[in-house]
Write a structure and sequence with these properties.
Blueprint: H1 3-11, H2 41-49, H3 57-67, E1 71-75, H4 82-96, E2 103-106, H5 110-123, E3 131-134, H6 140-148, E4 153-156, H7 158-167, E5 178-182, H8 184-189, H9 193-202, E6 206-209, E7 214-217, E8 219-224, H10 229-238, E9 244-248, E10 259-265, H11 271-283, E11 288-291, H12 295-307, E12 312-315, H13 321-333, E13 338-341, E14 356-359, H14 366-373, E15 383-389, H15 394-404, E16 409-410, H16 416-419, H17 423-452, H18 457-465
Parallel strand pairs: 1-8, 1-9, 2-4, 2-5, 3-4, 5-8, 10-15, 10-16, 11-13, 11-14, 12-13, 14-15
Antiparallel strand pairs: 6-7
């Protein structure tokens, strides 16, 4: 064992009751059902502290296979506990062989990367696991300092991981033992294919350990809610075909049984009115995520709802990362009960107490609908999803129903004459929202122009012309 590796082992706290690893499986009682899957006692305790009462279907299938050393392709509905299905085996392997850069987890979005890191830290709190989160929009120097501390687990988006591979001295993936591709279909849809190729080239398929005289094959876990031809291609490129277990605990495209889904057929010109009516009569103070297709629409709706007196924040890809995290934390903490978002928030985010999802815009791809409504009715809870369908959305909505394999029911009891009583108030709030956005753009444009033109430059130009 080299000196650097010994330093990491000493820093990795292992409670006395967890030694030796192979003798620490907790009693298989109803109280600790994770133990029956082969999970060690210290991680069973962590699961109990996090209120994980019993394994979900994907966890029951994936954890034993992972602990047996298999590669995994896991397909399950959103909200089914996929993150813990790969985090628990990784932490248990770390207990057996603590080392830096042991695992690399790739995520399609920054928010999901932070959430995965939080879950690793929560599950590994008793064993001192160190996690580095590498995402865009944050200071690379601070991330490089974290990498210099030789974390056990690296979680990041593909682009920023590649940035550090090329620019951060000492950062390498050549000793990664476990590679996780979370939301794999979205990784490919977001044009990360080139970055994934670079990362796969940097992560060897096997690694020799001179101290033990052994060669270890890299384990790969590929998780997604949906399987596409691109994901199948990635599976062939990254997994060991003879050592791969495919786990599918749901239909190809499905939603959970505890989710109640409705649609509301409306005129496009009154869409803002109908949205406000839903908040007045149905949502009230319950938590709700409103999904839109564009950044400008998300910003406008959030401002409109604020002008109407609702606690709303928005999140979209055009915001800085600190602002995105701030808005998300306000929603998670309950300080704000409405989150208006683009599809940047449709994947993987685990916000346990989301009561409603409203599709203000029908997504162009049916799979995105499944991921959006998967933000509610998570982990066995109930939830409701309502889609606003205008005369221009009928074809898109029919594609969603075809994907689900059933027709959804219309939301009953909504009468247009009652909705239009809100028209004047909503129109004024929408007008003010548009005005606020314009004023903000003017301020930003003026500030940008001031940075580009040095002070006194315009005066000197006038003098030259005269």
């Amino acid at each position: 064992m080299n000196p650097g590796q010994r330093e990491v082992v000493l820093a990795f706290r292992m409670p006395e009751e967890t030694k030796p690893v192979e003798n620490q499986v907790a009693p298989t009682t109803g109280e600790s059902s994770f133990a029956a899957l082969g999970v060690c006692a210290v991680l069973c305790d962590a699961c109990r502290l996090l209120n994980y009462r019993e394994p979900t279907p994907i966890q029951r299938e994936a954890i034993p296979a992972a602990l047996a050393g298999k590669d995994i392709v896991g397909l399950a509905q959103t909200g089914s506990g996929k993150t813990a299905a790969f985090a628990i085996p990784i932490l248990q392997f770390l207990l057996e062989d603590p080392r830096p850069y042991f695992a690399l987890v790739l995520s399609p979005t920054r928010e999901l990367a932070f959430q995965i890191s939080e879950q690793f830290l929560a599950l590994g709190s008793e064993i001192g696991v160190r996690v580095a989160t590498l995402v865009g929009g944050m200071d690379m120097v601070g991330q490089a300092v974290t990498l210099a501390k030789r974390p056990h687990v690296v979680v990041g988006t593909p682009g920023r991981v590649v940035d550090h591979l090329t620019a951060t001295k000492g950062f390498t993936l050549k000793h990664v033992r476990i590679l996780v591709l979370d939301e794999a279909d979205r990784l490919l849809n977001m044009d990360f294919e080139e970055e994934l190729d670079q990362i796969l080239a940097a992560v060897p398929r096997s690694d020799a350990d001179p101290s033990k005289g052994e060669t270890f094959a890299r384990k790969t876990y590929l998780f997604s809610a949906t399987m596409t031809s691109q994901v199948a291609k990635l599976q062939r490129a990254s997994l060991r075909s003879k050592e791969t277990v495919r786990i599918e605990v749901s239909a190809k495209y499905s939603t959970v049984e505890t989710l109640v889904q409705h649609y509301l057929f409306i005129p496009e010109k009154y869409k803002d009115c109908y949205l406000t009516y839903l908040f007045e009569e149905l949502v009230a103070r319950h938590s709700c995520i409103v999904f839109t297709d564009t950044q400008s629409s998300a910003q406008r709706l959030a401002l409109m709802l604020q002008n109407l007196g609702y606690g709303a924040v928005c999140i979209h890809g055009g915001m800085s990362q600190p602002n995105r995290l701030g808005a998300l934390n306000q929603f998670k903490s309950g300080e704000k009960h409405i989150l208006v978002a683009t599809d940047v928030a449709s994947r993987g985010l685990d916000i346990p107490l989301v009561d409603f999802v409203i599709n203000y815009d029908i997504p162009p791809h049916g799979k995105d609908y499944i991921h959006r409504v998967g933000r509610t009715a998570r982990a066995g809870r109930t939830g409701r999803a309502i889609s606003l369908v205008s005369q221009y959305d009928v074809e898109l909505f029919q594609k969603v129903e075809k994907l689900l394999g059933r027709q959804l029911e219309a939301l009953a009891g909504v009468q247009q004459e009652h909705v239009l009583l809100l028209l004047d108030r909503v129109s004024e709030a929408a007008r003010l929202a548009v005005q606020e956005i314009r004023e903000e753009k003017l301020v930003l444009h003026a500030a940008a122009r001031k940075r580009r033109i040095p002070a006194g430059a315009s005066v000197s130009r006038r003098r030259r012309r005269s």
